[in-house]
Amino acid sequence: MARIEIDGKTYEVEAGKTLIEITDAHGIEIPRFCYHKKLSVAASCRMCLVDVANAPKPLPACATPVWDGMKIQTRSPRAINAQKAVMEFLLINHPLDCPICDQGGECELQDVAVAYGKDRTRFIEEKRIVIDKNIGALISTAFTRCIHCTRCVRFGEEIAGVKELGATQRGDHMRIDTYMTDTVNSELSGNVIDLCPVGALTAKPSRFAARPWELHTAHGIAPHDAFGSHLEFHIRRNQVMRVVPRENVALNEVWLSDRDRFSYQGLYAQDRLTAPMIKKDGQWQTVDWESALLFAAEGLKKIPAKQLGGLASATATVEELYLLQKLLRGLGSNNIDHRLQQVDFSEKTTKAPFLNQRPADLAQADVVLLVCANLRKQQPLLNHRLRQAVLHNHAEVIRINVYDYPQNFPVSHNLTVAPHQLVATLAGIAKALDEAQPAFKNIEISEQQRAIAACLQKNNKKIKVLLGEAADNLPQLASIRTLTALIAKLTFATFSETGRYANSAGAILAGALPQQTLAGQAISGETGLNAQQMLSQSLQAYVLLGFEPELDSIMGATALQTLQNAPFVVAINGFCTEAMQGYANVLLPMALFAETSGTYVNNSGDWQRFTAAVAPVGSARPAWKILRVLANLLDVHDFAYTASDEILNEVKMLCETSAQTVEDSTWVLSAPQALCYLTEPAIYAGDALVRRATALQATADAQACHGAHVNQRTADKLRLSAGQQVKLSQNGGSAILPLVIDAALADDCVLVYTGLAESAGLAHDVGTIDLTAA
Amino acid sequence: MANQVCFKFKQHNQAESWTLAAYQALGGYKVIKKILNEKIAPETLIAELKTSALRGRGGAGFSTGLKWSFMLPRDEAARERMKGVQKYIVCNSDEGEPGTCKDRDILRYNPHALIEGMMIAGYTIGASKGYNYIRGEFWQPYQRFETAIAEAYKAGLLGENILNTGFDFDLYTHLGAGAYICGEETALLESIEGKKGQPRFKPPFPASYGLYGQPTTINNTETLSSVPSILANSGEWFLNLGKPNNGGEKLFSVSGHVERPANYEIPMGTPFADLLNMAGGVWQGRKLKAVIPGGSSTPVLKAEIAMKMNMDYDSIAAAGSMLGAGSVIIMDDSTDMVKTLARLAHFYYDESCGQCTPCREGTGWLTRILHRILHGEGRPEDLELLDNVSNQIMGNTICALGDAAAMPVISFIKNFREEFQYYIEHGRSMVG
Lengths: 774, 432
Ligand SMILES: Cc1cc2nc3c(=O)[nH]c(=O)nc-3n(C[C@H](O)[C@H](O)[C@H](O)COP(=O)(O)O)c2cc1C
Ligand code: SF4
Ligand code: FES
Description:
The complex is a heterodimer. Helix content of chain A is 27%, strand content 19%. By secondary structure, chain A is α/β, with parallel strands linked by helices. In chain A, the strands form eight sheets. In chain A, strands 14-13-24-23-22-15-16 form a seven-stranded mixed beta sheet. In chain A, α8 crosses α21 (644-657). Chain A starts with a strand and ends with a strand. Chain B contains 20 helices and twelve strands. Flavin mononucleotide binds next to β5 and α19 of chain B.
């Protein structure tokens, strides 16, 4: 402890902290530009200079540790003179054209200048001009406004883990520039917009669209990955103008991924469904809600329960998913599922994917085994915590996956194998940990597997085993999960599953599954059909919630075909596509992210409730209300909800009081395939909202998702070359795509991203795929 | 008396003074051998340096003995903690300050004195590795120094287990790339590490967080090269060469309007007038107008003040300037002080690293105002503005380059105000 005096008042503070940390904690104002609590200290802007007794010069509060007996004056003539001096220097070359600057009204320089600046300039020379640079679709630059605080540079090095922006040149020629690439491509790039204190880096999609004082804010929860970042909507006249992070120490700290930041653009896509529609005699007509709901109820009433299916996206809320399954089960059908990306349904019970630890605990890890996880692109802020473990705790990371995703930290063992080898690899590691188990009798252990096992067997170390989202798409899911969990058990590690979608865990807890209901409870009656079954053999009727079969389902063309063959389809959706008009009979417009209240359960296990920030577009309604009315019209009991919290309370009560019995699962080695077909939802096309966010589609990450990817050896073997149009064909689907040579794949694998129109013609028949010149 | 320390070879008129043989002929490497063989305690060596009153020759004049003592563990617990910690001794041969050229001649004519000095420093502070950062333009000095290192390795004076004493010392050179700022000690460290040469903010100081984050001592070439002579004789001897608190002889690089511009190694406290005489006096029989006594960043002095001052830290400070790196710039009465200042200001503007606001923006502003005055567009209020802007830079920056840029402006205007006023009023120089 240290006793210090600030402006005549005494404080007991922790010795060694910097002065600015102390003053910030006590609400004492010190102006600053380069300092940011989540970045390293640069001490270069000099705005925070204060007067410390016995120091020969003013000292920067951001870089000066406190010591016992220190006496600080933040507003003595010496402090004020230094601060005013720096302010004047910052302003001489800064354009004073705030009225045409996008940052105007929320500019740190503007704010501080009001307090410390002169009202007249003494600088009569010509101001510096810096040529702008197009650094991509998300960030707009006005480098003449840059005040060289280097926050954006430090962000790249310290948080994003890629040095994309740097300070080139010296002296007053110093400028912020991209040096390695022309554009800024990090999946976290948008955070530099918040970090930039002035208008040098602003959000391109919302540039010049609104003034900060016209905006009001509302809270929200990020709708894409399972991390569940907190965010804030900036709203003008009932329209979301932009999205920024809301600080949350336990989750996203002060950051937000680009996907969560810019996906709001999808809300205002051209194809938003704004009014209910029904198809009568082959003709679509817009009708009022009552007619539409009656039409839907009439249609469904005629269907035998077993012939009724319900499918939902895991971006739906707990409340929506719960009501959907309650409706179907109330009608006598267990045909309900949300596992649209899954192909292996052999596990008897389904558990919600949880980290079983806080993200901050991951940052303390010593050894981490990542299986089938693409954390960097799919859960960027969870990846950030892992990166902190590597950087600050020297954690060793072992990565096993079917694709070698570019990483932003060093990895000690990095294995990229074809899916069928994945099981053998995991079994080898498990055997190296416990040779005695009879199940491993025929398993060979490689040197590397032994080394990995040794790495995981460390006493008094925090070992974490993490199963990622990419396992979901593999035909070996059950075996991979079983073995990964076993490895965790044998190494006394924390076992985590990341899940993929904002509500992957919530969907399971809400009971949107054919074999189990709310909170993992057993169902009454026969197990229903799972997503794969429902999407391969047509039922007589479907209720679809926020689901676009050809893009959201791993079964693509088959799913679409199956729905087209179904006699009656009720689609509750935020959008209206040509495909929907082809297979649906009723289109019910639902409120989307930002427009509805509800709850997501993230992979930390937090039940994150949110309220509507804006009214839905057109006459769209919250899906829980649509489902309630539908249930009422169909005479299903216990649907008298008046607010969404009533639904939540019902769900939560059961989840909190009941324990799920989980059946043991087994594993089997899988046979090799001539050519292995891999899919992954494209980073910015994984759900209906984000695939309509136009700016994200123009990023390098989105561009990298096009085409059919094979490695060079596979291409050579098939006598194909980069850029060539190739035909992928399988039972039930085909697509023609350009060939992309991708060194991140194992031999004899072809990867195609889903969620994109270009690959929607594929059917994902796991068994076979042919790749030939088109 | 002169040439007792770094230029000792001059007394003996040695040919090829830079060779190992020549250095050893004058008793070179005897000191380090004695230290290693007798395992003299670092504390003893530091005490001797403190007695000598050797002060840093790089510009700041900090006591060398004191600086080295920061590297020794303060107590047993610290000694335990420091075991096996890699430390570094770094020599600053960047010599970028306009007016100075003494380190260049040490590297060219007496490189082994520096090697021995660095070895002694390494032994004293516990560093087994040394780096010499040499100014990029110093090609011949660089080659001489590299040759000297090779000779020393060959003779078993560098490397592992030197002379079977168990002492390891490796020495590397690093050639700069022409940035003045890399002479600032922490920018220099960044540059060795392969980064952009930008000063670090202190604390932490290099003694706790230096090269590659390890405890490091940085000294100027002349400082380190003086050490063998001091220890060969005694601290007392060195102190008595000069005056109290200003020990020894020192190299002064005399340049400008003199007949014989050169480096002169003279006792501290020598009258400036004597030094001027050694350099052959003001050239072409002209009159002395002004003197910058310590390198271009130190305040300029009027002739009459300079003629009364002695050449040591304290006397020059009393005269209103600084000894700095001992680079004496002589200006005769034909000198246009406005033009001179404009040139100096441009130098610091050009060399600012750009990271901190007052220096980045202030040096450019000063330069532009002076440029305007020089081109007949000065305004009466500009003088006050120049003074003001300089004072707004002073003391508010990360490193001393800001001060270095401000001090000439303040002192030129203070001492030669009428010349500036003349420029502003007439749009041209007062002196021819
Ligand atoms: C802008 C700037 C440039 C400097 N350039 C040099 C230089 O070229 N050579 C040098 O020895 N010291 C230079 N210094 C001083 C060094 O930072 C440091 O004080 C010195 O090397 C310490 O050595 P000493 O204690 O032996 O003098 C410079 C300082 C500043 C602020
Ligand atoms: S004073 Fe100048 S040179 Fe020194 S750190 Fe600041 S900007 Fe760089
Ligand atoms: S905030 Fe302290 S120097 Fe910039």
